[in-house]
Specification:
By secondary structure, this protein is an alpha+beta fold. It is built from four helices and six strands; from the N terminus they run ααβββαβαββ.
Length: 143
């Protein structure tokens, strides 16, 4: 994502019944700008020149330690069920594994988001048994 295509990422949307699961991409880009302490990395996902999704990861301070966290993942409603979600997750995980001191990657989501749960389990995340602000927290051990 760059100065030529960031606006296209802001135009991506999930299906109406998914909107309560993920913040709009405009919010995520704003958060990345105004919360530098989180070291957020927003990335657009493209098929050629066509934007299909968005992911953002960064660092989150939780219970006295810094954790690598995937903050957002979304696939545009017109591109769902084509394998993009899994591809975005796999590429993001590989990128995050290269971060210094990355022993695990965390992700949180609302328990009723079964599609997300299945995707995250499918790429190796496991339930930590922790619920924070009504979201379940899953972990992928890197080391």
């Amino acid at each position: 994502m760059n100065h030529d295509n960031w606006f296209a990422i802001t135009q991506l949307q999930v299906a109406d019944d998914q909107k309560h699961f993920v913040a709009p991409n405009t919010f995520s880009l704003t958060q990345a700008h105004y919360q530098p302490e989180l070291k957020l990395v927003p990335l657009g996902a493209f098929e050629g020149d066509t934007p299909v999704g968005f992911v953002m990861y960064g660092q989150y301070h939780y219970e006295g330690k810094d954790m690598q966290l995937i903050f957002r993942l979304m696939v545009d409603k017109n591109h769902q069920r084509k394998g993009y979600g899994r591809a975005i997750m796999e590429q993001t995980i590989e990128r995050m594994k290269m971060l210094p001191m990355c022993e695990a990657i965390y992700i949180s989501f609302e328990p009723e988001n079964i599609a997300a749960k299945n995707l995250y389990i499918g790429v190796g995340f496991e339930d930590t048994g922790t619920i924070d602000e009504d979201e379940v927290i899953y972990r992928l051990k890197v080391i």
